[in-house]
């Protein structure tokens, strides 16, 4: 009977979002038998209900992980390069740019900072890649419902009645991770009362491969380059505001919303035209007390959640994966054992905590309402930028390069 079946695998990945799919491709390409499950089949077309309207900017260090997983060749034709990270302070009496500072990737190397992709497209290409890998069994529509771990391995019960015995269970099942809770790992959560609107726009002026964060109050308004859309220049937008204001904006009729977002963008790219639906996401910072338990490793939002500032979120997730994969390949005979997982937490937790503190500070600074504090924010930005060694250090830190 199906509920009595027991399959053995090297790795069971719980979660089929972008991080989980990347992990499945990476471990499968590295020679590990891998099962990846997710309760929701991935939505792989922009117009389908439930499509993830957010975008992901893979920073330069993340490309190596994607290449090892056999994903980069699939994704490269759809990439929008991010050559310049621009920060604009528009915190004066009127919503106009009063301070603009550019961080140019050319100051570090001949490569861009990274490349931007729509999340629904990432899922499409990643699912296609998994179908090419004989060691990967992807099971969409199947959830993890039970976890029992022992020193010798972990046994996972799935919603289709089957059971899997794995040497390592990778929790990539999001901020409300079932695996993390089942493993008894607590989390610390900070809520900001913010929400982010995510959508795509077209505009008459080219973005010139510049990703722009515009700070006023409530949170940053960020324009991230996308490839041209039907012959028109296009960008993804993440607009962070306090919760009630975000919900009000999301409910506006399209003409009023377009006027509001054009004003909030300081008119930088001309009038913005909404070309996708608007999705709304709550903002929080969250970090697990540790990133591993017996036969379990946490990655991505199961381990940490941060606001979408500086393109850090998924790139931190791929750094988790890179670390875990490196440990697995270094000593495959001891995959998932206590020493390996202790090393994983030891390497990743302090790095993630440091970035969480930095992003929390930047987000709180972006939310300030009183004019004197907005003036102080602009002054600090100008002072940091004027010091070239500091500017280069900030850029390298943002990329995760030591």
From TrEMBL:
Q: What does the entry give for GO biological process? A: ubiquinone biosynthetic process
| Domain spans labelled FAD-binding | 9-350
Name the cofactor(s): FAD
Q: In which pathway does it act?
A: Cofactor biosynthesis; ubiquinone biosynthesis
Whether Flavoprotein counts among this entry's keywords is yes
Q: Where is the signal peptide?
A: none
Any one Pfam family match given in the protein's UniProt record, by short name? FAD_binding_3
| Membrane-spanning parts | 12-32
SUPFAM superfamilies cross-referenced by the UniProt entry: FAD/NAD(P)-binding domain
| Alphabetized UniProt keyword annotations | FAD, Flavoprotein, Membrane, Monooxygenase, Oxidoreductase, Transmembrane, Transmembrane helix
Q: Which family does it belong to?
A: Belongs to the UbiH/COQ6 family.
Listed name of the protein: UbiH/UbiF family hydroxylase
Instruction: Supply the source organism for this entry.
Output: Paenirhodobacter huangdaonensis
């Amino acid at each position: 009977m199906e509920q009595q079946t027991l399959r053995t695998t090297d790795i069971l990945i719980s979660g089929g979002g972008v991080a989980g799919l990347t992990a499945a491709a990476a471990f499968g390409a590295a020679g590990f038998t891998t099962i990846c499950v997710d309760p929701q089949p991935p939505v792989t077309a922009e117009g389908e209900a439930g499509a993830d309207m957010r975008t992901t900017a893979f920073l330069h260090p993340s490309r190596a992980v994607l290449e090892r997983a056999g994903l980069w060749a699939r994704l490269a034709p759809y990439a929008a390069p991010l050559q310049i990270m621009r920060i604009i302070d528009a915190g004066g009496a009127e919503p106009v740019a009063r301070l603009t500072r550019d961080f140019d990737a050319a100051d570090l190397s001949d490569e861009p900072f990274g490349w931007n992709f729509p999340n629904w497209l990432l899922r499409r290409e990643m699912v296609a890649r998994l179908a090419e890998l004989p060691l990967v069994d992807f099971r969409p529509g199947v959830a993890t419902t039970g976890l029992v771990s022992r020193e010798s391995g972990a046994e996972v019960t799935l919603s289709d009645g089957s059971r899997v015995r794995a040497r390592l269970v990778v929790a990539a099942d999001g901020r409300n991770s079932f695996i993390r809770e089942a493993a008894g790992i607590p989390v610390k959560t900070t809520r900001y009362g913010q929400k982010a609107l995510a959508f795509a726009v077209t505009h008459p002026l080219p973005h010139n491969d510049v990703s722009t964060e515009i700070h006023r109050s409530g949170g940053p308004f960020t324009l991230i380059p996308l490839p041209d859309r039907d012959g028109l220049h296009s960008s993804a937008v993440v607009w962070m505001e306090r919760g009630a204001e975000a919900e009000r904006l999301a409910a506006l009729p399209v003409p009023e919303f377009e006027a509001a977002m054009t004003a909030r963008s300081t008119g930088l790219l001309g009038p913005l035209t909404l070309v996708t639906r608007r999705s709304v996401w709550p903002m929080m910072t969250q970090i697990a007390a540790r990133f591993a338990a017996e036969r379990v490793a946490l990655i991505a939002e199961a381990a940490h959640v941060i606001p979408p500032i500086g393109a850090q979120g998924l790139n931190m997730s791929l750094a988790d994966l890179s670390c875990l994969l490196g440990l697995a390949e270094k000593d495959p005979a001891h995959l998932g054992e206590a020493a390996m997982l202790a090393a994983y937490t030891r390497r990743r937790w302090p790095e993630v905590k440091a970035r969480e503190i930095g992003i929390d500070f930047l987000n709180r600074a972006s939310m300030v309402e009183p004019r004197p504090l907005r003036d102080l924010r602009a002054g600090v930005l100008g002072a940091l930028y004027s010091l070239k060694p500091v500017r280069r250090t900030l850029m390298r830190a943002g990329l995760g390069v030591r």
